[in-house]
Amino acid sequence: MPELAPVAHLVDRDPQVTPQQMADSLVPPPQFTTASFASYRPDPEYASQAEVRDAVEAFVATRPEPAKRGLFGRKRKEPETPARSGVYLDGGFGVGKTHLLAAAYHAASGRKTFGTFIEYTALVGALGFQGTVDLLRGTSLVCIDEFELDDPGDTMVMTRLIKELSETGTRFAATSNTPPGALGEGRFAAQDFLREIQAMSDRFDTMRIDGLDFRRRAVDESASVVDDVPSVLATLSSVRTSRSGGPARVTQDDFRSVVAHLASVHPSKYVALVDGLDAVGLTDVQAFTDQTDALRWVALVDRLYDAQVRIVASGIPLDTVYPEVMLEGGYRKKYLRAASRVVALTRAETDASAETEPRAS
């Protein structure tokens, strides 16, 4: 067995992230650096994929109308029905939503941002609501990936943010596994916030993308499991170099220890938690018994996937860690998205960044 350098541990990482670093990170993840509408390969079996691609491309190419103002330059009274200022891509896992969102970002002119829903809400937490509005004011396009509303506070924050920025000319492109009118269903008393949710969804043209999850097409229907995590990590270290040019950077931890550590790290810092890593080793993976732990794990999987960090795991397959009672609840789509992504990450080739299939979500 190749000799393994001193093993680092994910649980020893305690990243500190400044608000400016959070703002600077609002760009597409590495695997979508060159994403374009031309490189998106629609599945001919699902016409909606090509149709949505063309519609989003047309949306980005169309110049928004400037805000109309009345006498003495005052902004006219807002109409009862707000103007559509965004596109909302609704579809399942692995049908290309994130690719199209990144393509929109690259094609848009002017100042633009790209981030996950949780990154924007974390920015509000760091800068305050008005500070976030001031930072994003003047942005031509705000791209929001994995739009989700898990609690009433997030509902109010994103509704206000979209409204304020829309009124100054900013446009939006968003992706989600849930139509905007159904956001929050099964998670909290959505009916109590129907007005806010409806006001937000009224600003988007919803586009449905159908199709199969490409991440599961060419592999077995389960995440890969190994018998000896240290041995596999040692082999990876012997044949790979990290993105910085040195030896591959890997970590090894007990799965339950990582889950416990996530409780002490704000989800907005998960990006920094996995920064620079080539592979994460997890021993003795077990099913979740606590939904809060499961949701934190989902957030980490999203960041691992964005950074294309390979997962090497022992125990039960990582796509089976959610008991049926959790899959029957309001977070079902979140869990299924994470399951899809860990299948890809545990079955990655020697170079975890080698995934070139452009249709990823």
Short description:
The chain has 361 residues and is α/β, with parallel strands linked by helices. The protein is built from 14 helices and 8 strands.
The main pleated sheet reads as: 5 strands, parallel
Q: What does the oligomeric state look like here?
A: single chain
- Give the overall average pLDDT: 81
Structural class by secondary-structure content: alpha/beta
Helix content: 25-40%
Number of helices: 14
Strand order of the largest sheet: 2-3-4-1-5
Q: Please indicate the percent range of residues in DSSP E strands (runs of 2 or more).
A: 5-15%
Distance between the termini: 37 Å
Order of helices and strands: HHEHEHHEHEHEHHEHHEHEHH
**Principal-axes shape call:** globular
